[in-house]
# Entry
Amino acid sequence: MSCILILLVVGVALNRILDRLEERLLQWRPETKLSLDVERKGS
# Structure
C-alpha cells in the first residue's frame, strides 16, 4: 500500500515539475506551440 502512495506522490510531483518546465519553454520559444497546433490540425 505504501508503495502505491509513494508512486502516486512521485507521479504528481513529476507532473507539476513538467508543467512548469513546459511553461518556461513556451515562454522561451513560443513558436513551438504554434507549430504543434498546426500539426494537430493537419492530421
